[in-house]
Design a protein that fits this description.
By secondary structure, the protein is an alpha/beta fold. It is globular, with a radius of gyration of 21 Å. It is 37% helix and 14% strand. The longest helix is centred in the C-terminal third of the chain and has 32 residues. The chain has a seven-stranded mixed beta sheet with strand order 1-9-8-5-4-2-3, sandwiched between helices. Strands 6-7 form a two-stranded antiparallel ribbon. It has a two-stranded antiparallel sheet with strand order 10-11. It folds into two domains: 224 residues, Type I PLP-dependent aspartate aminotransferase-like (Major domain) (Aspartate Aminotransferase, domain 2, 3-Layer(aba) Sandwich), CATH 3.40.640.10; 119 residues, Aspartate Aminotransferase, domain 1. Helix 4 packs across helix 5, helix 4 packs across helix 7 and helix 8 packs across helix 11.
């Protein structure tokens, strides 16, 4: 059986069954039921954010956050091409125009020094990504956005539990969006959330996920349907009990990789004052040819690494016609390879993967 780049974390079958057992008495399966409410409260406490709204999917949460900010129709949103397609699709699907900003070579996050030259009269927001859980330069981005009157929405899909300067990273910007997809550090099978500090966003987000319906007779907005159901919330409640142990195991395996591969590959830097959640194990090879050679060698050894993120989103069919002066992002995408990392991955397999990498680059 091949080793995947990640694996979904699951509680014990018995624990999950106990969590969902009350559903067979209540018959409440969705519409923000008791488990949904418990999970939202537990998650808000764990993350340390003032407000949180749960969604059925991370992408739905991202679109809802952008819509809730009431940005001008057709305006431009600056983002990064070094991300998963969902980030840019959310901009495009809502009728906004994505503008691609290059990234920092040190950690792959959006380069604040490139922002100023991309802002014009049509720019309404910035959508940076804490890629691989690497914290963006939130101070510089926030200062730039404030000077130009722009909103900031962080794609924090990779950054569950990360802190910056001692405070929760999800408290930065006007909103931060989490993904609870099965491949993420923390999952509810599918799911997501918008974290916010401005309480005025709460109603707009609730409208977005529940058809704009506020009570039995009031439909106040043309919202969609993106409610997290009770089974998802139950999975979240179970996984939240074990998340600290999971993060510690990720940290341990990450350290094994780093000891083995020191000098053979490059690693992304960690921003000063930021913690890591070890959501991925990205390494940087010398060039595209060496990256592909390592990828092929691992595949032959039964290991599915990922060229994550390659190709860049700006090279995808929907965005090829847009300007994209992003040499740093392009260079990183050609060199990066995400190695398997997840709790339950045997240490001997980490050693085997590391040895295969070293042998190939020697």
């Amino acid at each position: 059986m091949s080793i995947k780049v990640t694996r979904a974390s699951l509680p014990s079958f018995g624990e999950f069954c106990e969590e969902i057992r009350p559903l067979w008495d209540s018959h409440i399966l969705t519409n923000m039921g008791p488990l949904h409410q418990r999970f939202a409260a537990a998650l808000r406490e764990y993350l340390g954010c003032a407000g949180i709204t749960l969604f059925s999917h991370g992408h739905s949460a991202l679109e809802a956050a952008l819509r809730a900010l009431r940005l001008p129709a057709g305006s431009r949103i600056i983002t990064t091409p070094f991300t998963f397609a969902s980030t840019v699709h959310a901009i495009s699907r809502l009728g906004f125009e994505p503008v691609f900003c290059d990234v920092l070579p040190s950690d792959g996050t959006l380069d604040p020094s490139r922002l100023e030259g991309l802002i014009d009269s049509r720019t309404s927001a910035v959508l940076p990504v804490h890629v691989y859980g690497n914290a963006c330069d939130a101070d510089a981005i926030g200062a730039m956005a404030s000077r130009h009157g722009l909103k900031v929405v962080y794609d924090a899909a990779h950054a569950f539990g990360v802190r910056l300067d001692g405070a929760p990273l999800v408290c930065r910007g006007d909103a931060s969006v989490l993904s609870f997809h099965a491949t993420k550090v923390f999952n509810t099978v599918e799911g997501g959330a918008v974290c916010f500090t401005d309480g005025s966003l709460r109603q707009a987000l609730d409208d977005e996920k529940n058809f704009g319906i506020r009570d039995e007779v009031t439909c106040a907005a043309a919202g969609g349907n993106a409610k997290m159901n009770e089974l998802q919330a139950a999975m979240g409640l179970c996984n939240l009990r074990h998340i600290d142990d999971e993060l510690h195991e990720r940290e341990r395996l990450d350290a094994v990789y780093r000891r083995m591969l020191a000098g053979a590959v490059d690693f992304f830097e960690v921003r000063s004052g930021a913690t890591r959640n070890h959501s991925y194990m990205p390494v940087l090879l010398r060039d595209g040819a060496q990256r592909d050679a390592v990828y092929d060698a691992l595949l032959a050894a039964g290991v599915n690494a990922r060229k994550y993120f390659w190709p860049l989103v700006c090279d995808a069919e929907p965005y090829r016609g847009l300007p994209a002066d992003v040499p740093v992002a392009r260079g990183l995408s050609e060199r990066v390879l995400a190695l398997p990392l997840y709790p339950g991955l045997p240490e001997e397999e980490v050693v085997r993967i590391g040895e295969c990498c070293k042998k190939t680059v020697a």
